[in-house]
Amino acid sequence: MSVQQGNIVELEDLNQVREGMTRSQVQFLLGTPLISDPFHADRWDYTYFYRQGRRRQVSRHWVTIYFEDDRVARIETRIPPPGGENVDVAANER
Prior knowledge:
Blueprint: E1 3-6, H1 11-14, H2 23-30, E2 43-51, E3 57-68, E4 71-78, E5 87-88, H3 89-93
Antiparallel strand pairs: 1-2, 2-3, 3-4, 3-5
């Protein structure tokens, strides 16, 4: 059985997020963030993990949105290209 966890962020939607947008505009495009940390209220994290069947490799994607004065100040992404850069679970669990 394949395992999916987190927020699936479509590149079309992510490409619409711009500096200066409000939190509600970002939430409309990307949905509710998986992590909204009370200790880092100006940061939203969207993460997604996918493991296909019994394979040991996991595809991991991250999008982090930073806010200043309730507007997007910076966007960081770590999304591997289609068919590329998967992470070996065994290597990370050691």
